[in-house]
Design goal:
Layout lengths: L19 E3 L6 H7 L1 H11 L1 E5 L6 H11 L15 E3 L2 E3 L9 E4 L7 E12 L3 E2 L4 E3 H7 L2 H10 L1 E7 L7 H5 L4 H10 L3 E4 L5 E7 L2 E3 L6 E3 L13 H11 L6 E5 L7 H13 L1 E2 L8 E5 L3 E5 L2 E2 L3 E11 L13
Helix pairs in contact: 1-3
Length: 333
């Protein structure tokens, strides 16, 4: 396999758009990616993300092969908040989320103790309108947030609360990959998750994590969490009203708080989303595109869309939270 420095790739940089590489492979996409693997990964390390256009990825097997050429080991998803379709080991559909609702900026699985360092997306079918997977630099977002707010999140961390049911989001059996309650309890104990079984086979969990981490390679401080995305105030107002009426304030399928349990106000969530928007880079999908994202350095989102949209996802390069200088101790009661 040939090895090239990232500087030899003609990466386009334009304000408001992700770094882009336009290619015209001689032969099939898999061979081209295998030949340029090192240069592509170096470009992601340099820029935080990279949109590769012109590969012509057209089906799930081909996209899966490209993913495996780029990463040694694909990760299995753990603790998902919504279902995905599994195409092959480590190859998934996008999260099943209402197409008319925004999935705001977040870092994949930032509430777990081991999360992907690299996210890979392949667009097989581009939507008629919208649906971009946008990106935002986590270090720039952190620098733009009020210092007092950052200090509080560094001191307290953030808390994810989940109430599993069979109606909204992933069930606990889907999230933990088992329908055996004892296996779920063992996982929770091993991964610093507080849990409480509810009536009718329900489950509620709480897990405290660091909101700010250091990149495991560069050491740069990054805003790394899903505080805004999984918070009640990011929901559409009508959806929020329905959820509260249906499940109560403490029974929402998911919500976020400060690590000490204090509620996060609507004003703070609005501020976080405004800062994200100021640092968002977006480019409409084209069929065949490949997007690579450093999951610690770069947040990503999914914008509302119309028409069919098929984007495959793979996660790789597992990173331990313990290797990212967490600012709060991870423990379960």
């Amino acid at each position: 396999m040939s090895s090239f420095p990232a500087s030899l790739l003609d990466v386009e940089r334009q304000p408001g758009r992700p770094p882009m590489l336009r290619v015209e492979p001689d032969g099939d996409a898999t061979s081209w990616v295998a030949e340029h693997r090192d240069a592509l990964r170096a470009a992601v390390a340099e820029h935080g993300s990279l949109l590769v256009r012109g590969l012509g990825l057209g089906d799930a097997p081909g996209a899966g092969t490209v993913f495996r050429r780029l990463a040694d080991d694909l990760l299995s998803e753990q603790e998902p908040f919504a279902p995905r379709r599994k195409y092959a080991d480590g190859v998934y559909s996008s999260t099943k989320w209402p197409p008319n609702q925004q999935m705001c900026m977040h870092h994949e699985l930032s509430y777990t103790l081991t999360f992907p360092g690299l996210m890979m997306f392949a667009c097989l079918t581009a939507p008629a309108e919208g649906g971009a997977t946008a990106v935002a630099d986590a270090a720039a977002v952190l620098d733009a947030l009020p210092a007092q707010l950052v200090a509080k999140f560094e001191r307290e961390g953030w808390l994810l609360t989940r109430s599993y049911n069979d109606e909204i989001g992933a069930s606990w059996a889907e999230a933990f990959g088992t329908d055996n309650p004892k296996e779920v309890e063992r996982y929770c104990h091993a991964n610093a998750i507080d849990f409480a079984w509810q009536k009718d086979n329900g489950l509620r969990t709480r897990q405290r994590r660091s909101a700010v981490v250091r990149h495991p390679v560069t050491g740069r401080r990054c805003w790394f969490n899903q505080v805004a995305f999984l918070n009640e105030w990011t929901m559409d107002p009508d959806v929020h009203e329905f959820m509260v009426d249906e499940y109560g304030e403490d029974g929402l399928p998911f919500n976020t708080r400060f690590g000490n349990g204090e509620p996060i106000g609507e004003d703070i969530v609005q501020l976080l989303n405004e800062v994200y928007e100021k640092h968002t880079a977006r480019e409409p999908w084209q069929a065949g595109d490949l997007l690579l994202v450093d999951n610690v350095r770069t947040a990503h989102s999914r914008e509302p869309f119309e028409g069919p949209r098929e984007v495959l996802v793979a996660m790789a390069d597992g990173v331990r939270l313990a290797d990212c200088s967490p600012t709060v101790e991870v423990t379960a009661r």
